[in-house]
Amino acid sequence: MKGNSGGLKSLLFPGPVIRINLMKRIGGAIIMPIEPGTNVRKNMRDFFLHLSPARVGTGFVAAMFSIMGPALIVMNAAKEGNVPLEQAISWLFIIYVTGGVFTIILSLRYRLPIVTAYTIPGAVLIGSALKHIPFNEAIGAFMITGAIVTILGASGLIKKAVEFLPLPVMLGMIAGVILSFGLNVIKSVVEEPAIGGSAFAVFFLFMAMKKISKWVPPILGAMLVGGFIATWMGKTNWSALEFSLATPIMVKPEFSFQAFFELTIPLIVLVIGVQNIQAIGVLYAVGYKPPINAIFTVPGIGTLLNSLFGGHPCVIAGPSTAICSSDSAGENKDLRYIASVVDGLLWISFGLMAGMAIVAATIVPKQLLATLGGLAMFGVFLTTFSQAFSGKFRSGAMVSFLISAANVTVLKVGAPFWALIVGFIVTLLLDRDDYTLIKNRSDREDEEQIAV
Question: Whole-angstrom Cα distance, residue 119 to residue 264?
Fold first, then answer.
C-alpha cells in the first residue's frame, strides 16, 4: 500500500492541470455554478475615472435604440389586451427598471458590456394572446417561465449546450440578425436623406479622421448632427415632454394550462434559444468570454421580478449589447462596460418616467434612430461576418446566416432559434472534418498538459 500511496494520492488529489482535464472529461456530471466576477469596487472607480464622450454617447445610443421603438411595441401589446393604462405603465416601469438594474449589476460584476432588457418578440406574442387569455393568467405564465429559465441557467446545462455548438454557427446567426440593422441604415437614409444622410456622412467622415475621432467618437458626431438637423427641420417633439413618476402595481398571478402552452413554452424558447444566445454570440464575436451561466440565470430572476408588477420576461439584449461592445465605446475593450452602465442608468430613468413612454417614443424621427443604431454596430458587422465565414464550419455558418436573415417564423418560434438548430445539423453533415480536426487538436493539447 505504501508503494502505491503516491499514485493513489495523485488520482484523488491531482495537480491543477490534470484536475482541469479530469473535470473536462467528467463535466457532464458537474453542476456548474454562476461564474465568479471581477472586483466591483475597482470597476466602479474606473467607471468614474474613465467616463468619456465615446462611452457616454454609445450608452446613450444603445438606450435610445432600446427605448424609442420597443416601448411602443409593449404599449401596443397592452392596448391589444385591453390592459388598463395604470397597469400598462406599471408593466413598462418594471421591465425598464429591472433591465437597467441588472445591466448595471452584470456590467460591474463581470466588467463586460452586458445589457439586460426584455423580449420584444415576446411582447408581440403576448399582445396577441391577451385577446383571449386573462392578464392574471399571463402573469402566471411569466412566473413559470422565470422559474424554469432560472433553474436551467443555474444548473449549467445551457452552458454545456452553448459550448457544444460551433462558434461559427452562432456567429452566422448573429450576422443574419444584425444584417437587418445594417440594411435599415440604408433604407432610413433614403427615406430621410437630410437627417439620416447627414448622420451617415458624419459617421464615416469622423472615422476617416483618426485624430478627431479620438476626441469626438463618430457615433456621437452622427447623433449630434442628425439630432440638430431633425430639430432644425421641425421633426422633433422636445416640447411635449412632461415629467411624471410611474407607480408600480402588483399583480396577483393565476395559472392555467392554456396560458402555459400558449405563452410559457414559446417564451422559454425565445428567452433561451433566441435572444440570450444572440448576446452570447455578440460577446464572443467581439472577443469577450461571456459568463454563460449568469447570462441565462439573471434573466430568469429578472422575469420573476417583472411578473410581480405585470412585466413580461427579461432577456439579455443582443442589439444593445452589440452597440455597447462596439468600437464606438472606445478602443480599450476592457472599458466598454462603462457604456452599458450608462445604458442601464438611462433605462432606470426611463422606467421611473414610464408614463411619458408614448410621448418619448415620438420625440425623434424613427429614421434617425435606425441610422444611429445600425452605425453604432458597424464594427460588430465587420468582426461577426469575418469570424463566421473565414474559418471552420462555414457550411453550417452560411445556412445559419441565411435562415436568420430570412427572419421566418415556424411554429411561432423565431428564425434565430431555427438558424442554430439547422445550422448545427448541417455542420454534422457537411463539416464533419472540422470536428475531427478540432478533436485531434484538443487531444494533443490534453496530452501535452498532462505530460507537463
Answer: 13
